[in-house]
Amino acid sequence: MSISRFSFPTAIHFGPGARTLVGAHLREQALTRPLLVTDRALAALPLLAEFIAHLGPGLDVAVFSGVSGNPTAAQAMAGAQAFAAHRADCVIGLGGGAALDVAKVVGLLATRGGHALEYAWDHLNARPIDGELPYFVAVPTTAGTGSEVGRSSVLSEDDTHVKRVIFSPRLLARAVFADPELTVGLPPRITAATGMDALTHNVESYLSPAYHPLCDGIALEGTRLAARALAIAVREPSNLAARGDMLMASMMGAIAFQKDLGAVHSCAHALSAVCDLHHGLANALMIEPVMRFNLEAVPEKFAELAHAVGAGSAEAFVPWLAQLKRAIGLDDGLAAAGVRREQIAALVALAERDVCHRTNPRPCTAADFERFFLQAM
Ligand SMILES: NC(=O)c1ccc[n+]([C@@H]2O[C@H](COP(=O)([O-])OP(=O)(O)OC[C@H]3O[C@@H](n4cnc5c(N)ncnc54)[C@H](O)[C@@H]3O)[C@@H](O)[C@H]2O)c1
Ligand SMILES: [Zn+2]
Fold first, then answer.
1. Which residues are registered as beta bridge partners of 164?
2. What is the CA radius of gyration of the chain?
3. Which of 283, 99, 66, 71 is nearest to 182 (CA)?
4. Alpha carbon of 313 to ligand 1 centroid (Å)
5. Rounded to an integer, what distance in angstroms lies between the CA atom of residue 374 and that of residue 20?
6. Are 351 and 266 a contacting pair, CB within 8 Å?
7. What is the pTM (predicted TM-score) of this model?
8. Ligand 1 close to Cβ of residue 101 (< 6 A)
9. Do residues 201 and 146 make contact, with C-beta atoms less than 8 angstroms apart?
10. Mind listing the pLDDT tens digit for each residue in 187-211?
């Protein structure tokens, strides 16, 4: 028997101004002591103070802003301590994927104890993630990871920087407030890199062989939105229509990757671990060689992708990617991002070990990964 399971459970409040609804939402749930989890750089921006001012009366808010870079397990542990110290009754995650991934597990760690990575899905004796967790709402400020609608938290090991995944449907935000106005202050390079993450999620999940026609439809439409909006969002930061399309494409990508991802993400995870590259930038730099390799395995799917982005044929999809990367200023390659040739062996070893490429439409060997990294240099 082969039974598929489909689930699209997150309540999403989407649109300019959605951020102003969070306070009333918490009051409706009789919650009064939120811990707001955000990253160090965002905490210094007026955006945070403005967000807190909109929360309104009756809430005693504490801020934990100890998130930075590719977030580590220790950052999540410190967030859990802040939750306990504040005697918080709920968590607001405000930020990009980094802040949201930490926010997602703070309630779990504060109420169940143990070390963060004891909950990682591949831990030999993984702690269970069961029962009701503290209420968690997610407010994204980047349009890329879609972590706000995802079931996983990606944390790096503090010593090795290897990314580990804590996965459970119980980690899903209870409500998402997706406000394109929060993304207008994103610098062009971060808009470009995070946007390429969203595009890659849609493309790789569409190409994953898993049976999920609902997600396939979402992934194709997410691809279409990102193709239409990304270069505009980079060029015209205040264009709310383009920002909204990207925020939606980002959530669609993360919903679609219930079907899992592919080899671009295996390469990106290795690049973050070995070279501390930003996740979206890493995807942007790796997507072309991997897609060139994938084309012959599923040309009919490339024809659908090409149609979605307005490129003429299956063969035109990769050149379209190259042109998009030029338009958004991410066409400079791995070497320009600081990756050195002598790191390629370590990158290949980690990429090969990563699980994402198990759902790549064409199996990848170590030699294939080596070629991808060399081509991307
Ligand atoms: N949980 C998932 O399903 C999932 C999926 C993909 C990636 N990830 C993880 O997400 C992380 C990457 O997230 P990201 O790409 O959103 O980057 P990020 O969260 O690291 O943010 C990038 C930078 O943008 C800044 N920033 C964020 N919002 C801003 C705003 N509105 N204005 C100005 N600056 C702003 C941040 O301070 C930070 O310096 C990685 O750790 C990656 O592993 C998680
Ligand atoms: Zn990603």
1. 155
2. 20
3. 99
4. 33
5. 47
6. yes
7. 0.96
8. yes
9. yes
10. 999 999 999 999 999 999 999 999 9
Does 1 have pLDDT greater than 90? no
Domain 188-376: homologous superfamily in CATH: Dehydroquinate synthase-like - alpha domain (1.20.1090.10)
Q: Are 333 and 359 in contact (CB under 8 A)?
A: no
Furthest-apart CA atoms within the chain: distance in Å: 59
Answer yes or no: is the C-beta of 251 below 6 A from any ligand 1 atom: no
pLDDT tens-digit readout, 155-190: 999 999 888 999 999 999 999 999 999 999 999 999
Q: Which two tokens stand for residue 157?
A: 């090991």
Find out whether 293 and 353 touch, Cβ atoms under 8 Å: no
Q: What is the mean pLDDT of residues 57-84?
A: 97
Measured from the alpha carbon of residue 192, the closest ligand is 1
Residue of 279, 285, 355, 356 to test ligand 1 pocket, by largest number of atoms within 8 Å of CB: 279
Say which CATH architecture domain 11-183 belongs to.
3-Layer(aba) Sandwich (3.40)
**How many other β-carbons are positioned within 10 Å of the β-carbon of residue 161?**
15
Where do the domains of the chain lie? 11-183, 188-376
Minimum-distance ligand 1 atom for the alpha carbon of 254: 3
